[in-house]
């Protein structure tokens, strides 16, 4: 897919996040945006958008504000801790977009994204809590960023965005970020079907050890999310290495 990546303040093209998207086989255009003149930055991004016609626009921090201020039609936006309060005049996010943000972000407050969400009347699942800081350059954040780009451009009906926020009142915008809340596996030892909760914020590819609640034998549980947000879950007996 073609991705227009808009970098943050004092970042340079070619950082970790656009490089990650590029190494996963996507065409990434990563224009240099003016750090001082926001309008000039928007102008450069707009001309890149008009020229490239990207499938998705990814904007990081100040680049997220640039993305919000673009005329980008129905092209989905993936906003990484967008600094919309600091720059630009747009305070509404269109549907078919997602925000990735860490609660531990000490540069742009997580509350800013919650406000953007409620002001736009978008469902809770639009805001995905991920990462440990403002950079969102850890492996898990990078994976979720790529996953969001894939889902938003797949033409899927974005089932996870339509989930009622009441389905997960304790973790708004968190557990509801998948099309499913739970899935099941069959215990290899006793053959019972075991239901487990799903949590996309643990990454799109997960493996962990859990004792079967029926027979108490340890299984390694594998969870794999596909591009539509659907989880494949399977179990295998935990290996004994002694
Ligand atoms: Zn069992």
What does this structure look like?
The chain is of the alpha/beta class and 242 residues long. The protein has two domains: 2-165, Alpha/Beta hydrolase fold, catalytic domain (Rossmann fold); 178-237, no CATH class. Helix content is 24%, strand content 23%. The protein has six helices and eleven strands. The strands form three sheets. The protein has a six-stranded parallel β-sheet, sandwiched between helices. A three-stranded antiparallel β-sheet has the order 9-10-11, with no helix packed on it. α1 (16-23) links the parallel β1 and β2. The chain is elongated and about 65 Å long. Residues 162-177 have low confidence and may be disordered. Zinc ion (ZN) binds next to loops. Zinc ion (ZN) binds at residues 187, 189-190, 192, 212, 214-215, 217.
Secondary-structure map:
Blueprint: E1 2-6, H1 16-23, E2 27-29, H2 38-52, E3 56-60, H3 62-68, E4 77-80, E5 98-101, H4 110-119, E6 127-129, H5 139-153, H6 159-162, E7 182-186, E8 193-197, E9 205-211, E10 218-225, E11 231-237
Parallel strand pairs: 1-2, 1-3, 3-4, 4-5, 5-6
Antiparallel strand pairs: 7-8, 9-10, 10-11
Bound molecules: zinc ion (ZN).
Structure keywords:
alpha/beta; 6-stranded parallel sheet; binds zinc ion; Rossmann fold; 3-stranded antiparallel sheet; 2 domains; 242 residues
Please tell me the CATH architecture of the largest domain by its name. Answer: 3-Layer(aba) Sandwich
- Specify the helix fraction band: 10-25%
Overall residue-averaged pLDDT value: 86
CATH class of the largest domain: Alpha Beta
């Amino acid at each position: 897919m073609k991705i227009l990546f808009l970098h943050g303040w004092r970042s340079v093209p070619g950082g970790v996040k656009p490089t990650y998207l590029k190494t996963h086989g996507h065409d990434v255009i990563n224009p240099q945006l003016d750090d001082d003149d926001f309008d000039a930055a928007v102008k450069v991004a707009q001309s890149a958008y008009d020229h490239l016609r990207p499938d998705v626009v990814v904007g990081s921090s100040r680049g997220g504000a640039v993305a919000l201020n673009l005329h980008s039609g129905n092209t989905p936006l993936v906003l990484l801790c967008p600094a919309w309060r600091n720059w630009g005049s747009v305070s509404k996010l269109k549907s078919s977009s997602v925000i990735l943000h860490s609660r531990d972000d000490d540069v742009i407050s997580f509350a800013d994204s919650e406000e953007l969400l409620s002001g736009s009347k978008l469902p809770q699942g639009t805001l995905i809590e991920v990462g440990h800081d403002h950079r969102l350059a850890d492996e898990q954040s990078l994976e979720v960023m790529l996953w969001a780009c894939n889902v938003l451009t797949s033409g899927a009906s974005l089932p996870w965005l339509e989930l009622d926020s009441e389905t997960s009142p304790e973790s708004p915008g968190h557990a509801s970020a998948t099309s499913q809340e739970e899935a099941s596996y069959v215990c290899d030892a006793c053959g019972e079907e075991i239901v487990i909760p799903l949590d996309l914020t643990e990454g799109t590819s997960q493996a962990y050890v859990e004792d079967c609640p029926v027979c108490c034998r340890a299984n390694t549980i594998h969870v794999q999310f596909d591009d539509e947000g659907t989880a494949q879950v399977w179990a295998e007996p935990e290996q004994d290495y002694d």
